């Protein structure tokens, strides 16, 4: 086993041993999109594999080193890799993260951070050229260390990685800088590149720092708040503070750049901006369809339940937009070390953060986490949101 894979297994086992948690991933976003949205800070030197007989106890969780997983098929290269790990400076290795001094008590500002300046298109095009070169370099870099190359999450030395997906956008560039300025442990933004005429809508790339920690996974476990480590309260501190920030207009729904929100869970994966919640709901319901319902009566019943969302006014708050376990990193001491993937962040109705996390996997561990953080006060909104999802799912699944 390589040193990288050994360290990954050690970190994962340490966290699971302290928390008593583990088990199969029942990620809701994976069900919706087939994409692991929290991949950028998973340790690149090993894969977490869940065997066919996995249970919520995590007994079949094991870390598969690249040699066993088939990424290295040349024994000579494997031996060179082992020798290299003995003399390679830590800063050049794919598990390096920049030292961070964790405060004794996490404090997140409740004052709305300023919207950062977004580099102009000429600057973005120049960085895009450089980023494409880094992507080619990463292929060699990953081969040298015996780790899988991922063209979406590009691994680099010096504690860096580059996110380059069809969901990466300028709104994420702004949002991740805002939350970092407020004290939330998000990756540090370095630069963004633009790539016109790229296939698969991979228009933007972001160079950022790699964060330490283990990615959380959902499970069937029971949440025991008193038994959880500090990350739970620290994450609540982040969410509570964000919800105190003020939108540019009282009922504005949109990104921090006042542009449309890009989200996997809305019709055609884009919506807004809107200045009234009626406009927001009208847009969401515009994609309603009776397709998939067993009867007209069942469709009408679901429509009535979904339309109850119009009846209650809601304030607008800053929202992550994809509040799922796989977007949270926890370090070996049980502290929150990363809050990832801000591509869908923006100004939403106050219930949105929680109902997004609770629409699937009812009574799962993460469902309980979201409910404890405040989602339990939005039971009617959750019921309407679940109904709305049934009505509009054809407009975003499979796109």
UniProtKB/TrEMBL annotation:
<feature type="region of interest" description="Disordered">
    <location>
        <begin position="1"/>
        <end position="62"/>
    </location>
</feature>
<dbReference type="Pfam" id="PF01636">
    <property type="entry name" value="APH"/>
</dbReference>
<dbReference type="InterPro" id="IPR002575">
    <property type="entry name" value="Aminoglycoside_PTrfase"/>
</dbReference>
<protein>
    <recommendedName>
        <fullName>Aminoglycoside phosphotransferase domain-containing protein</fullName>
    </recommendedName>
</protein>
<feature type="domain" description="Aminoglycoside phosphotransferase">
    <location>
        <begin position="164"/>
        <end position="362"/>
    </location>
</feature>
<dbReference type="InterPro" id="IPR051678">
    <property type="entry name" value="AGP_Transferase"/>
</dbReference>
<dbReference type="InterPro" id="IPR011009">
    <property type="entry name" value="Kinase-like_dom_sf"/>
</dbReference>
